UniProtKB/TrEMBL annotation:
UniProt source species: Paxillus rubicundulus Ve08.2h10
Sequence ranges assigned to domain VPS28 N-terminal in this UniProt record: 1-105
Keywords: Endosome, Protein transport, Transport
A matching Pfam family: VPS28
Protein's UniProt name: Vacuolar protein sorting-associated protein 28
Listed GO MF terms: protein-containing complex binding
Lineage of producing organism: Eukaryota, Fungi, Dikarya, Basidiomycota, Agaricomycotina
BP-aspect Gene Ontology terms: protein transport to vacuole involved in ubiquitin-dependent protein catabolic process via the multivesicular body sorting pathway
Protein family according to the UniProt entry: Belongs to the VPS28 family.
Length: 214
């Protein structure tokens, strides 16, 4: 029997598939760490919203891509972080929300241009049509709602609109589902009601300058 050398490197894998698996897990680990640093930097005002938003969006996109590649090894992000003793609550929160903090809380980044109004209106119509056409799966609804909420959050005062918080809440719900999972008929009806409410509130704010229509 050969003796074990203490100077010999311990390998996590013995086959190419195993090597690829651990390489992907290491990449996922790195994305979470980077996202946590980014969140903390933004909270401390170490970076501006203009710097934070695209960087956060890119990391969240990379995270979603990696999650698809390691889905057989990672039942949930909480389990993954627990297994590897990761203490990164800021990153976990951002992952669960699924959009940058500037979208979740409204960055009030600038004036409401005609282009923004047209794009947001179209996003509202597209999403409501999707629900009326009985689209129910997360991978069908989440990208459309994410685009809607992102555009909606660009308007000054949107952080105080009731519709914004409702849509962000639905975005978090969808973000926590698996791609193939579907919302129920009851959820679909409530979601359509909430988005229709936000749509009406959005137009009241444009015409009267206040979300309550006064």
């Amino acid at each position: 029997m050969s003796s074990l050398s203490l100077d010999e490197e311990v390998r996590l894998y013995t086959t190419n598939p195993e090597r690829e698996k651990y390489s992907l897990l290491a990449t996922l680990f790195g994305i979470i760490i980077a996202l946590d640093y980014l969140e903390r930097a933004y909270v401390r005002d170490a970076i501006t919203a203009a710097e934070y938003s695209p960087a956060c969006t890119r990391l969240l996109s990379q995270y979603m891509t990696m999650l698809k590649l390691v889905k057989d090894s990672v039942p949930s992000i909480e389990q993954f972080m627990s297994q590897y003793r990761m203490d990164n609550p800021a990153a976990l929160h951002r992952i669960k929300v699924g959009v940058p903090a500037t979208v979740e809380h409204s960055s009030e980044a600038g004036p409401e241009t005609g282009k923004w109004i047209a794009e947001t209106t179209q996003n509202f119509i597209t999403f409501m049509d999707a629900l009326k056409l009985r689209l129910r799966a997360k991978d069908q609804l989440h990208p459309i709602l994410q685009e809607l909420v992102t555009g909606y959050a660009r308007f000054k005062g949107s952080k105080d609109w009731e519709g914004r918080s409702r849509m962000v809440s639905w975005l978090i719900t969808l973000n926590g589902m698996k791609a193939s999972e579907e919302i129920t008929e009851e959820q679909s009806r409530q979601l359509l009601f909430d988005v229709d409410h936000a749509y009406a509130e959005f137009f009241r704010s444009l015409s009267g300058g206040n979300s309550d229509g006064t």
